[in-house]
């Protein structure tokens, strides 16, 4: 009742990572990080970053964390849902429309659960490691 649609047609939605920063909601679906206004939703979303612009393989976002200025995210091969040893990358992008995507780490096994603090980005891997690197 009285729900506002922020976006539509979200295939392969990453359900456990939705963030609100200021008036914008951020989420991942498939290979794309998207945003929409919370106070004045149009029902259409704006692309912040697209993994396919830096990785031409069939990838999807596997983890997402959003700060006041950047999105940090990891990818994995689309067909890897049944394979915990898959390898992907960790990225960052500014919170702006069609932001350039920067690769932070390559060859990360099943990267997930990305978080940040004032200095670093942290993520879990499928081989039970916690990795980190400076922002």
List the main descriptive attributes of the protein structure presented here:
single chain, 135 residues, mainly beta, Lipocalin, 4-stranded antiparallel sheet, 11 strands, globular
Helices, strands, pairings?
Layout: E1 19-21, E2 24-29, E3 32-37, E4 46-50, E5 59-66, E6 70-77, E7 87-94, E8 101-109, E9 112-116, E10 120-124, E11 130-134
Structural overview:
There is one protein chain. The radius of gyration is 14 Å and the shape is globular. It has a 4-stranded antiparallel sheet, with no helix packed on it. The model has no long low-confidence stretch (mean pLDDT 87). It has one domain (19-134): Lipocalin (Beta Barrel), CATH 2.40.128.630. It has strands at 19-21, 24-29, 32-37, 46-50, 59-66, 70-77, 87-94, 101-109, 112-116, 120-124, 130-134. The chain is mainly β and 135 residues long. It contains no helices and 11 strands. It is 0% helix and 50% strand.
Q: TL;DR?
A:
This protein has strands at about 20, 25-30, 30-35, 45-50, 60-65, 70-75, 85-95, 100-110, 110-115, 120-125, 130-135. The chain is mostly beta strands and about 140 residues long.
């Amino acid at each position: 009742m009285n729900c506002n649609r922020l976006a539509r047609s979200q295939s392969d939605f990453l359900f456990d990572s939705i963030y609100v920063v200021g008036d914008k909601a951020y989420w991942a679906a498939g290979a794309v990080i998207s945003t929409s206004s919370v106070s004045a939703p149009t029902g259409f979303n704006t692309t912040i970053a697209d993994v396919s612009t830096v990785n031409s393989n069939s990838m999807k976002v596997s983890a997402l964390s959003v700060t006041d200025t950047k999105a940090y995210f990891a990818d994995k091969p689309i067909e890897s849902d049944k394979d915990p040893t898959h390898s992907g990358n960790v990225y960052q992008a500014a919170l702006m429309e069609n932001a350039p995507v920067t690769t932070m780490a390559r060859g990360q096994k099943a990267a997930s659960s990305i978080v940040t603090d004032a200095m670093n980005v942290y993520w879990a891997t499928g081989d039970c490691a916690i990795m980190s690197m400076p922002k």
